[in-house]
């Protein structure tokens, strides 16, 4: 001991001496006793990690000699002394685990200190067996509780809480070794504390606090005290305490006594049979034929012949020592029977608690747990109380009304969530895995009690109770989560973490649930249940590459590297021992990253580990991820074989993660009984959970238990047949009988460990009674089935060494190669035989160098025509002929392979359909109805075959109303009246809904949007839209279209109503709806894919890219929002008297212009070109990017000479005649269908108008405004298209610009230039 330690202990000794002392049997306090107790509290705050202060006070017995006497003699009179002493007592009685920071020390010295603290606590508990001490606590607590909530001070509330915590600490102390060795019906220290609490009335105060609504803040403390009071007690013993035994109890005890007697009699009889009349000294020497010794001779046997069957060569061998971390958990439930007075006292407490306190207290505690206002892991007390008191009520006098708070569907759901949470923590938190396993066991026992209570309600005499039970059963049996829970827990059983007692409760719970489900199906007939399955939808992969640390390699390099790794991986996968890696964390529950992102990161970690030659880490990561995400099957099935695991790692290794693709064993739909390999790797996947309602199949439900992992749990529990009670053995045999007989999987029990257990059962003398008759009968049946299989398949002897799956079980019984999986049975498709594999390999060699898709070429030549593409691709991968499905597509991605490959029959059918529909308005559309191919593929094939010269000729033709040619004879006198009517109609037209919208600074608008709440989601939606539109415009062969922004979320719809967001959209080139016929904002065609990607980068908050410089030509019309208003304004321009001397200002250099076509006179019809040349006006038919004709000006270019320019003469009377005709056509359009309203500029397909600029201010002041092409009659356009002998491309482009045929945006694209 150091000098400092000596000084500290000397100071503590002086403080203890200053508290007081005993004199003539009475305790006399010192004057500064209060200060001395406070000094003790301060000293406890300065103790080190070994708790030196606490251990010294325990050694000096300060609590027994000073603190407890202070409460007894001065606790009633001195309130300050009472409060300070209670604080010190509460500190000294803290559990040792809490004092040592919630962990048991591992090093020897610190652990010795930990054990010392526990011993002192046990001595403290013996000191508290003092009626006077507990009486003072009871009086003080009663005094504070008598005060109303308003009269009670906060200090008094704190003191009440400290008193409850002190009681909790006293009851929490573990039993000593002496108490553990006490026989039943003897009073231990814990029983004495409970009895003293009953004598002093503390138990009544506890019941009052539990039932009072004003004391809800102490609910959890009270529940802890009640739980600790019933430590080591069982509801069965308490419910029958103090009452005469019923006939059923007597019969049960008599049967148990008869069983023990029969076992003892059989044991003695077997011992008598072993005795021989010959003296042991003359036992003789024998030679065992057929059993070789160390040499080549037979074994010489010196023991009696009665023991020859027990002869073994393993005697004297040193068994292999199991590592400490792999030793099975030996968890036993510690229960003892207290004295009758204690049991009667606790029984009365239970009755009063259930009658007056259970429902309100459990409601308050559950509310605190859900609000997370309690301490961590306080739900264990709630679960224990639920199980204990519900079982007591069920065994004592069952009245469901008294426990209605915990007999609800919500309670089932709450316990289910706790079960899954504790199971996840047991697998993730390996350091405290055993603690989490104990909590999981407690939650399982609660779930078991809920099922038993539900079963008791179903058997009740009250129809109301039975109806309530029926409602709960409908919910429990309907939800898939409850049906999958117990098979999932059985498959997750681990004997290094879960005890055998947990396995016993799990097996019994499964028996109760399956029996209840079977009874429910028998009584209800057709039962509908819910089924959830995960569907993986294909979607286009993102262009943003996933960054990995592994450099890119060619396919040959990857194959070479895989050959190097394959040997090491194969050895590790075939090793019996589990692959352990310290650095394996596939899932972090505390991380803010979503589960899907963590799953993707886990795949990348496996990929990186494989490429870094860290095979152990890769396998450990894969298996850990399979335990965390078992339902999706992305990391393989739970019972995956070593071969499948090897193939899965190979697919991950060869995956191209740099392109955002994960190639592996991705299941499109989770299968309940097996796993399938995908037909082809997907460029991107999107998982969705689909819920459907279907008829329940009980036999299919039983098939979920036909798993080797489930049988292993039952086999482990079967080895304890001698210690199990009769009910547990019955549950084991019943489930194994369901698997072997009802499911037809008897070969699943052909395992050496199972047969070894059967051998022990037959050779055990204690089993020669009627109590083990059921077990022996089942074992006999299994052995008979085994020997029947031996006659057909002698290899079954080898199969005994391994656990088998469903495929192997069927092949053992029916013969190898005859297995049909569950899905194959439904569709009649057997697996691949050796002959079929040879056929497939030969066909692959023939077609691997051919044209088109390899699988499509193989399928027609297969003998078995029922084979699907998925089966062929899967088998090719399993046979190592290809590594992935991409090698089978010959450069064509995805499902486009089938549709882009044209057979001779398909080409001939296409020719026939084209001849039938070549004069229709929509040739490609009619052919699409007959052929299941995309429009783009049909158009490309028609052009390739030469049936169509230009793909533009296959576009759908718009129907137009015929316009009478004599409409042009109206003359110019009507132009004024037409102009007046146009002005009147324009004035009465509604204004554009976004007429006041202007462009602004994008950076400033973006900063304003980021300051608004919930606007980040809308900006991310806009980024995705830009990125998706850029992909579409890069991939499309035809002309792109203006992409609408369709809001699918409420936040996006609200954002579109925001003025700042609207201005920002208009600034970056997203145009608002033109009129009431449009609904969505649209991404302008003026934005190229490169510009869209720049906008995406600018909206990224991390990259902080700059906005591109946009020269947008589209402006919102200032007048009418409809196409009619625009045409009226254009008509006013057309009817204005033109001046040939005025010219427009040339367009900017960056605006794209179209040269007018040669011989532009042919643009007009032959009837319209005969006007007087004196009144003509020279017009330049050059088009701007907006599809508009500039009047009174000549198209001038740097590359064009003056002599190359040509002018077109147009009679002004013709212009006014056109205006009158347009007016007449506008009036006629009131009854015209939407697809014929060409004069209104409405697209007959989309119902949207052009977005052509009608702003008159665009012209230079004093110069002639432009004459719009929309002013010309439609007959001129039609005749120009049909009669012109010039270039088809030029005329089609101009005609489309005039007629408003441009898709959505009404803007000429660069391809039309």
Summarize the structure in words.
This protein is mainly α and 1313 residues long. Helices cover 52% and strands 5% of the residues. The protein is built from 52 helices and 12 strands. The chain has a 3-stranded antiparallel beta sheet. A 3-stranded antiparallel beta sheet has the order 11-10-12. The longest helix is centred in the first third of the chain and has 28 residues, at 247-274. The chain is globular and about 125 Å long. The N and C termini lie far apart (97 Å).
What is the average of the pLDDT values?
A: 75
Contiguous runs where pLDDT drops below 50 for at least 5 residues:
540-551, 659-685, 821-829, 891-899, 960-990, 1119-1313
Number of helices: 52
Largest sheet: 3 strands, antiparallel
- The percentage helix is 40-55%
Spatially, the strands of the biggest sheet line up as 7-9-8
Radius of gyration, in angstroms, nearest whole number: 45 Å
- Cα distance spanning the termini: 97 Å
Q: Give the structural class.
A: mainly alpha
What portion of residues belong to β-strands? under 5%
């Amino acid at each position: 001991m150091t000098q400092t330690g000596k000084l500290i202990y000397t100071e503590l000794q002086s403080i203890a001496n200053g508290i007081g002392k005993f004199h003539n049997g009475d305790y006399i306090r010192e004057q500064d006793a209060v200060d001395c107790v406070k000094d003790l509290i301060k000293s406890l705050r300065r103790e080190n990690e070994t708790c030196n202060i606490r251990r010294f006070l325990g050694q000096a017995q300060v609590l027994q000699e000073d603190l407890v006497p202070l409460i007894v003699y001065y606790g009633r009179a001195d309130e300050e002394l009472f409060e300070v002493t209670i604080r010190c007592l509460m500190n000294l009685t803290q559990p040792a685990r809490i004092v040592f920071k919630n962990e048991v020390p591992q090093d020897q010295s610190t652990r010795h200190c930990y054990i010392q603290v526990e011993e002192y606590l046990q001595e403290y508990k013996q000191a508290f067996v003092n009626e006077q001490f507990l009486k003072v606590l009871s009086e003080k607590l009663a005094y504070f509780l008598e005060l109303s909530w308003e009269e009670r001070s906060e200090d008094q509330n704190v003191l009440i809480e400290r008193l409850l915590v002190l009681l909790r600490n006293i009851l929490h102390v573990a039993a000593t070794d002496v108490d553990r060795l006490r026989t039943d019906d003897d009073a231990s220290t814990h029983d004495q504390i409970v009895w003293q609490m009953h004598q002093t009335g503390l138990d009544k105060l506890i019941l009052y606090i539990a039932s009072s609504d004003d004391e809800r803040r102490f609910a959890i403390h009270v529940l802890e005290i009640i739980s600790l009071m019933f430590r080591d007690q069982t509801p069965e013993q308490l419910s029958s305490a103090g009452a005469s035994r019923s006939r059923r109890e007597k019969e049960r005890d008599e049967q148990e006594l008869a069983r023990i007697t029969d076992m003892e009699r059989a044991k003695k009889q077997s011992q008598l049979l072993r005795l021989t009349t010959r003296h042991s000294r003359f036992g003789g020497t024998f030679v065992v034929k057929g059993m070789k010794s160390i040499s080549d001779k037979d074994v010489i046997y010196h023991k009696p012949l009665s023991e020859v069957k027990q002869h073994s060569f393993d005697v004297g061998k040193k068994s292999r020592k199991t590592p400490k971390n792999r030793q099975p958990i030996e968890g036993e439930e510690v229960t003892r029977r207290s004295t009758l007075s204690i049991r009667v006292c606790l029984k009365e407490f239970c009755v009063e608690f259930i009658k007056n306190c259970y429902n309100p207290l459990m409601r308050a505690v559950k509310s605190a747990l859900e609000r997370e206002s309690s301490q961590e892991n306080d739900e264990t007390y709630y679960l224990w109380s639920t199980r204990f008191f519900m079982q007591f009520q069920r065994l004592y006098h069952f009245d469901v009304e008294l426990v209605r708070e915990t007999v609800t569907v919500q309670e089932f759901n709450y316990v289910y969530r706790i079960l899954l949470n504790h199971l996840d923590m047991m697998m993730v938190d390996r350091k405290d895995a055993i603690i989490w396993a104990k909590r999981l066991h407690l939650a399982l026992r609660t779930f078991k009690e809920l099922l038993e209570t539900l079963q008791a309600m179903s058997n009740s005499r009250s129809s109301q109770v039975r109806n309530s039970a029926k409602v709960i059963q409908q919910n429990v049996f309907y939800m898939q989560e409850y049906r999958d829970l117990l098979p999932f827990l059985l498959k997750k059983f681990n004997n290094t973490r879960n005890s055998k007692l947990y396995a016993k409760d799990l097996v019994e719970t499964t028996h109760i649930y399956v029996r209840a489900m079977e009874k429910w199906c028998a009584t209800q007939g057709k039962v509908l249940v819910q089924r959830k399955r995960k569907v993986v939808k294909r979607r286009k992969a993102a262009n943003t590459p996933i960054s990995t640390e592994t450099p890119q390699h060619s396919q040959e390099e990857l194959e070479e590297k895989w050959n190097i790794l394959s040997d090491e991986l194969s050895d590790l996968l075939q090793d019996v021992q589990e692959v352990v890696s310290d650095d394996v964390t596939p899932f972090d529950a505390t991380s803010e990253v979503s589960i899907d992102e963590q799953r993707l990161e886990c795949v990348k970690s496996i990929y990186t580990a494989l490429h870094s030659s860290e095979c152990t880490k890769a396998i450990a990561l894969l298996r850990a991820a399979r335990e965390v995400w078992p339902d999706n099957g992305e990391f393989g099935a739970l019972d995956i074989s070593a071969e499948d695991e090897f193939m899965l790692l190979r697919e991950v290794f060869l995956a191209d993660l740099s392109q955002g693709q994960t190639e592996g064993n991705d299941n499109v739909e989770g299968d309940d009984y097996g796993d399938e390999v995908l037909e082809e790797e997907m460029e991107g996947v999107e998982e969705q959970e689909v819920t459907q309602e279907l008829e329940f199949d009980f036999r299919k439900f039983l098939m979920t238990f036909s798993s080797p992992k489930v049988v292993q749990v039952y086999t482990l529990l079967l080895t304890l047949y001698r210690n199990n009670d009769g009910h547990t053995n019955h549950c084991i045999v019943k489930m194994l009988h369901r698997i072997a007989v009802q499911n037809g999987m008897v070969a699943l029990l052909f395992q050496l460990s199972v047969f070894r257990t059967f051998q022990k059962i037959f050779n055990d003398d204690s089993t020669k009674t009627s109590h083990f008759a059921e077990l022996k009968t089942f074992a006999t049946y299994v052995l008979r089935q085994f020997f029947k299989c031996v006659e057909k398949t002698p290899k079954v002897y080898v199969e005994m060494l391994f656990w088998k799956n469903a495929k192997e079980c069927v092949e053992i019984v029916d013969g190898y190669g005859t297995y049909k999986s569950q899905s194959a049975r439904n569709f009649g498709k057997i697996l691949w035989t050796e002959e079929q594999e040879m056929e497939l390999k030969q066909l692959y060699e023939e077609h691997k160098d051919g044209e088109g898709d390899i699988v499509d070429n193989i399928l027609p030549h297969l003998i078995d025509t029922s084979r699907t593409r998925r089966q062929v691709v899967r088998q090719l991968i399993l046979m190592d002929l290809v590594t992935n499905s991409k090698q089978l597509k010959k450069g064509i991605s995805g499902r486009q392979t089938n549709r882009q490959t044209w057979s001779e029959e398909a080409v001939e059918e296409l020719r026939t359909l084209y001849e039938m529909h070549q004069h229709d308005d929509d040739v490609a559309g009619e052919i699409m109805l007959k052929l299941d191919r995309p429009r783009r593929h049909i158009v490309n094939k028609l052009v390739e075959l030469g049936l169509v010269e230009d793909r533009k000729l296959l576009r759908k033709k718009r129907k137009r109303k015929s316009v009478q040619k004599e409409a042009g004879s109206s003359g110019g006198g009507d132009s004024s009246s037409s102009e007046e009517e146009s002005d009147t109609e324009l004035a009465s037209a509604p204004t554009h809904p976004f007429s006041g919208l202007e462009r602004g600074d994008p950076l400033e608008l973006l900063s304003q949007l980021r300051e608004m709440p919930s606007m980040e989601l809308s900006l991310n939606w806009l980024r995705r839209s830009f990125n998706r539109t850029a992909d579409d415009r890069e991939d499309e062969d035809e002309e792109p279209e203006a992409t609408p922004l369709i809001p699918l979320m409420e936040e996006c719809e609200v954002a579109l109503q925001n003025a700042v967001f609207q201005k920002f959209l208009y600034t970056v080139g997203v145009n608002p709806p033109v009129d009431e016929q449009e609904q969505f904002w649209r991404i302008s065609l003026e934005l190229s894919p490169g510009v869209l990607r720049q906008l995406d980068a600018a909206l990224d908050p991390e990259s902080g890219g700059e906005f591109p410089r946009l020269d947008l030509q589209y402006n919102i019309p200032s007048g009418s929002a409809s196409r009619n208003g625009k045409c009226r304004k254009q008509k006013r321009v057309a009817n204005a008297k033109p001046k040939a001397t005025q010219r427009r200002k040339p367009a900017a250099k960056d605006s794209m212009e179209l040269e007018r076509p040669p011989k532009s006179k042919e643009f007009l019809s032959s009837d319209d070109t005969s006007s007087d040349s004196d009144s003509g006006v020279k017009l330049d038919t050059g088009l701007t990017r907006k599809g508009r004709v500039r009047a009174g000006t000549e198209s001038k270019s740097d590359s064009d000479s003056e002599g190359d320019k040509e002018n077109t003469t147009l009679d002004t009377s013709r212009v006014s005649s056109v205006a009158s005709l347009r007016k007449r056509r506008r009036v006629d359009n009131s009854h015209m269908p939407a697809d014929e309203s060409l004069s209104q500029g409405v697209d007959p397909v989309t119902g949207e108008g052009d977005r052509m600029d009608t702003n008159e201010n665009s012209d230079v002041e004093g110069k002639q405004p432009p004459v719009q092409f929309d002013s010309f009659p439609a007959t001129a356009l039609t005749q120009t298209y049909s009669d012109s002998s010039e270039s088809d491309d030029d005329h089609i482009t101009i005609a489309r610009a005039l007629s408003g045929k441009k898709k959505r945006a009404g803007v000429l694209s660069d391809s039309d230039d």
